[in-house]
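STRUCTURE:
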């Protein structure tokens, strides 16, 4: 009888007390994300280049290792096709196209001129062949054919290129075409090229299966019959540089000689961009010089965070009282030679309490990394599951559970 009266009293108390008290506001806010911006590494100031504009960055961190007039706006020639290829691979990833899907060549695409593989109007090739033609032979006709196939028109595809450039932080870029043929107001910078190269090579490393092919062939199939056509790569570094992974050359009379060269050694991706070099020999020699400098003077520290243990975080006003966390990704740090990774330490910082509702995109803490006492980066800890905000019924049930636990 006593237990029944206690339960009835609790029920009346919950009914009568204003809901604003049951759901009292808790002073708990989620701290703002303090992203660590990639810094410029200390480069050899004695390293001189003939090239008027150049940059060297590390792929996973985005750290700038060396730069010379990296933000000068210049015509990029066929290095433009890095963005074209990025949009192609993103369309593949999203399932909008497939490698074996047929692409019909329009009269407009076939009329491009410049570097081309002489696709004929209404000729059909699959996506895989088109990528090979773009990557190896820098084919303008194949580039426009793919642009029209993905976006419906060349103009719409170029609009998407510019939109993607903005998303990548390419603040000094404007594309007028997807080929790199000289055109008014078509420009980018060494640093912006490095940004789109980084996105392509790190997200879609399979591009190297195309970009590092020295010679290949494909078959023209038209009304006139079948003809084999040879493809030859213009990036001479793929035959001579250890660890080369790509990526794209470009040259016109106005742009002069341009190159985005990517290489990987010991799990570290480097991207060297050369713009407006005076001749083709200089662009390859100085790109290799930049890559050599990066590999000789830096190493990559990687913490995969496989065995980390995280305590749960309390939730206010949620259907659950706690939520567990997931680490958002690996941590990487570009470590200059002479600095030992043994001096790197990490600290797990979880929020005391987070308010519901919570989604798996919400932060509940950080893993903060220090070199000695200097912060060098952090990794987000995200909620492992979605937690809804508690309603009146949820609060009532939770109160009953707490009562019976206390009573027993």
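SEQUENCE:
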């Amino acid at each position: 009888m006593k237990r029944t009266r206690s339960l009835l009293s609790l029920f009346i108390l919950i009914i009568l007390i204003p809901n604003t008290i049951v759901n009292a506001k808790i002073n708990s806010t989620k701290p703002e994300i303090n992203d660590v911006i990639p810094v410029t590494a200390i480069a050899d100031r004695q390293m001189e280049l003939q090239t008027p504009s150049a940059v060297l960055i590390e792929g996973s961190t985005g750290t700038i290792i060396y730069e010379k007039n990296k933000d000068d706006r210049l015509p990029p020639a066929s290095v433009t096709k890095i963005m074209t290829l990025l949009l192609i691979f993103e369309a593949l990833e999203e399932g909008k196209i497939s490698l074996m899907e047929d692409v019909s060549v329009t009269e407009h695409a076939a009329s491009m001129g410049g570097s081309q593989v002489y696709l004929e109007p209404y000729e059909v090739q699959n996506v895989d062949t088109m990528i090979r033609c773009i990557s190896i032979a820098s084919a303008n006709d194949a580039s426009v054919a793919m642009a029209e196939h993905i976006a419906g028109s060349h103009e719409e595809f170029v609009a998407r290129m510019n939109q993607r450039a903005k998303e990548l932080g390419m603040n000094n870029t404007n594309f007028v075409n997807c080929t790199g043929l000289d055109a008014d107001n078509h420009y980018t910078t060494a640093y912006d090229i490095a940004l789109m190269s980084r996105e392509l090579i790190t997200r879609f490393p399979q591009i190297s299966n195309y970009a590092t092919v020295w010679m290949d062939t494909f078959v023209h199939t038209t009304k006139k019959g079948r003809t084999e056509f040879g493809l030859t790569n213009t990036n001479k570094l793929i035959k001579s540089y250890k660890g080369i992974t790509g990526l794209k050359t470009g040259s016109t009379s106005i742009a002069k000689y341009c190159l985005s060269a990517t290489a990987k050694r010991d799990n570290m991706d480097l991207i060297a961009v050369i713009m407006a070099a005076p001749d083709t020999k200089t662009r390859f020699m100085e790109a290799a010089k930049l890559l050599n400098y990066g590999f000789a003077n830096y190493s990559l520290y990687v913490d995969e965070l496989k065995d980390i243990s995280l305590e749960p975080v309390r939730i206010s006003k949620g259907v659950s009282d706690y939520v567990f966390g997931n680490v958002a990704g690996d941590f990487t740090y570009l470590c200059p030679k002479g600095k030992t990774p043994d001096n790197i330490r990490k600290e797990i910082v979880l929020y005391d309490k987070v308010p519901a509702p919570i989604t798996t995109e919400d932060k509940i803490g950080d893993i903060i990394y220090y070199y000695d006492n200097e912060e060098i980066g952090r990794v987000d800890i995200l909620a492992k599951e979605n937690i809804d905000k508690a309603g009146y019924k949820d609060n009532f049930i939770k109160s009953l559970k707490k009562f019976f636990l206390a009573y027993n």
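REMARK: Residues 2-37+304-407 form a domain with the Peptidoglycan synthesis regulatory factor (PBP3), Domain 2 fold (CATH 2.60.410.10).
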